[in-house]
Automatic annotation (TrEMBL):
Keywords (A to Z) from UniProt: Flavoprotein, FMN, Monooxygenase, Oxidoreductase
Domain Luciferase-like span(s) in chain numbering: 40-247
Highest taxon of the lineage: Bacteria
Keyword Oxidoreductase among UniProt keywords: yes
Protein name: LLM class oxidoreductase
InterPro entries xref list: Diverse_substr_monoxygenases, Luciferase-like_dom, Luciferase-like_sf, Luciferase-type_oxidoreductase
Keyword Oxidoreductase attached: yes
Entry GO MF terms: monooxygenase activity; oxidoreductase activity, acting on paired donors, with incorporation or reduction of molecular oxygen
Length: 322
């Protein structure tokens, strides 16, 4: 496995990125909203802030928001409903330590200047806790609503990504389809560390080589661990071939945590119904194959949410703490 082949070092970026992504270790976060809404695509958002604050108190490393501008029936999930950047502003002022992630901003649906400004603002207001996932988008229904073509989202993603990277420079000057800053102006605020951590989601309509070269990490989808291990090894090999330092990998995982710690894994959508003993074993295996962070999604969880969070904190988090 990769961690036994060479000593892994991640390039530090900001407070959130550095705390969530640790070499040779796995950390645990939560997908927002932290509630059960298996029977409807729309959550209630009940106690949403209190549960995020509880997650921070219990020691989870990150919470993850999503960019879902429209409630698309075929998608079946409205996410946390609230605009991610507005919500990040609230969470920046109502939390102190937990990393604030977005998985992921759909770059082709927004002007990159607005993304860069909003993301840098959230990073500054949170004291450097922002981790920004970016994606090309997979819901074709949203594009006509914004009068945008779905077919060229890959090109738009790549050029938006480049714009966000370069607009953070001092008095930037460059040519881009989204606009051409001329060097006579500057965008403020700057991210706390001078750079936004940008994690690429899935393929995002790009080549594997481009993703390895440009992203600060990779957000993968859950797969069988044997296949996941191979994909991670291939990814890190491409990163090395691109002359880059090793980069972190993360993935989501849906769980329905039972009262009985011995409940064996039973498949659910992108995850398992299982007890804490088997969840710990699965997470340890993911850690062994090179996954650095798992964002747990409790949408289908049947037990009381506060009870589940405390059970995870007592039985699982100690095995993945610093």
């Amino acid at each position: 496995m990769l961690k036994h082949i060479e000593e892994i070092r991640f390039q530090p970026i900001n407070r959130g990125y550095n705390s969530v992504f640790r070499p040779n270790r796995l950390s645990l976060g939560l997908v927002v909203p932290i509630e059960t809404y298996a029977k409807s695509p729309v959550p209630t958002m009940a106690r949403h802030l209190e549960r995020i604050q509880l997650a921070e108190e219990l020691g989870f490393s990150a919470v993850w928001l999503r960019d879902v501008p429209f409630n698309v029936p075929s998608f079946g999930d409205a996410g946390q409903i609230y605009d991610p950047f507005v919500y990040l502003g609230l969470l920046a002022g109502q939390t102190e330590r937990i990393a604030l992630g977005v998985a992921s901003i759909i770059l082709p649906l927004r002007h990159p200047a607005h993304v860069a400004k909003a993301a840098a603002t959230a990073d500054v207001l949170s004291g450097g806790r922002l981790i920004l996932g970016v994606a090309s988008g997979d819901r074709p229904e949203e594009y006509p609503a914004l009068n945008l073509p779905f077919a060229d989202r890959g090109t738009r993603f790549r050029e938006s990504f480049d714009y966000i990277r370069r607009i953070g420079e001092d008095t930037p000057s460059f040519e881009n389809r989204y606009g051409s800053p001329n060097g006579g102006m500057d965008m403020l605020p700057k991210p706390v560390s001078g750079k936004l951590p940008l994690l690429i989601t899935g393929g995002s309509q790009q080549t594997p080589e481009w993703i390895a070269q440009n992203g600060d990490g990779w957000m993968m989808y859950p797969r069988h661990t044997d296949l996941q291990a191979k994909i991670i090894c291939d990814w890190q090999a491409r990163v090395k071939a691109a002359g880059r330092s090793t980069k972190p990998v993360m993935q989501p995982l849906y769980i329905d945590l039972t009262d009985n710690p011995e409940t064996p894994p039973q498949p659910i959508h992108l995850g398992f119904r299982l007890g804490t003993r088997h969840l710990r074993a699965h997470l340890k295996l993911l850690e062994e194959i090179g996954v650095n962070h798992v964002a747990l999604n409790l949408r289908f969880n049947q037990a009381a949410m506060e009870t589940t969070l405390k059970r995870l904190a007592d039985a699982i988090l100690p095995d993945f703490a610093d």
